[in-house]
Specification:
Layout (H helix, E strand, L loop, with lengths): L1 E7 L5 H12 L9 E10 L2 E10 L2 E9 L2 H27 L5 H12 L11
Parallel strand pairs: 1-2
Antiparallel strand pairs: 2-3, 3-4
Helix pairs in contact: 1-2
InterPro entries: HPF/YfiA_ribosome-assoc (IPR050574), RHF-like (IPR036567), RHF/RaiA (IPR003489)
Keywords: Translation regulation
Organism: Chondromyces crocatus
């Protein structure tokens, strides 16, 4: 696991650095392969910005968050990444197990209801 942290337009503190490293390291348990992460922490005016990019194997995820508190920004961006990883993992498992896609499921429901599938809007 490789985590790089960059501070922009602010003096980097050890407290923020260790907090970000601990939070990002917890995302490894959701990934199957070793991850590489780049965290950018910045200040623009009164807003604190946290931007995180994670790559593990062939999968990459990216999220950013702005708020008035640096720790809140880090927490929010980690929540976003966790949701992205879980959603992607569920999607891949459904594909591997032969699950139906959303379009196929909608077509099946329309057939069972007896209503013909009519497009709402077409492009010309």
């Amino acid at each position: 696991m490789n985590i790089a942290i960059t501070f922009r337009h602010m003096a980097g503190s050890d407290a923020v650095r260790t907090y970000a490293e601990e939070k990002v390291a917890k995302l490894q348990k959701f990934l199957r392969q070793a991850m590489s992460a780049h965290v950018t922490i910045a200040v623009e005016g009164l807003e604190h910005i946290a931007d995180v990019r994670i790559s593990a194997g062939g999968v990459s995820h990216q999220a950013n968050e702005r708020s008035a508190d640096m720790y809140a920004s880090i927490d929010a961006v980690i929540d976003k990444l966790e949701r992205q990883i879980r959603d992607g993992k569920g999607h891949n498992l459904a594909r591997k197990r032969g699950g139906t896609s959303a379009g196929e499921y909608a077509a099946d429901v329309m057939r069972m209801a007896g209503d013909p599938a009519t497009p709402v809007r077409t492009r010309s």
